[in-house]
Amino acid sequence: MTSNKVHTDADKLAHEWVNAYNDQDFDRFGALYTDDVAYTVRAYQLAFNGRDAFVGHIQEYAAAVPDRTLTLKRIIADRDFIALETDFTGTSSGVVPTLPPAGERISACFCTILQLRDGKIASQDDYVG
Question: Which one-letter DSSP state was computed for residue 42?
Fold first, then answer.
């Protein structure tokens, strides 16, 4: 695979990933992942194995921050890895005790490392800043 092909594929996947997330299209979002995807957020001691468990977590979080939006800032690709820098914003619904009370704004910066296998996301590590 040429360098240009890697970057073109990474750009396409990154935009599809962000758009599916922002559209709350959980079927489209889940289709980007392998059945056995591994997901971690070490800062929050979260780990999920398998697409159903991970997408279920994303759906729960959508209820906690229903107007959430990811803004893609940067994409870096190298072989089977893609690094994404995103900004997250939204309003807490108050249903998750670890988030701010209902009506308060939430914002965070993420660095997401995706590892691909056969064109799908096989692992995702999120780092929160």
Answer: G
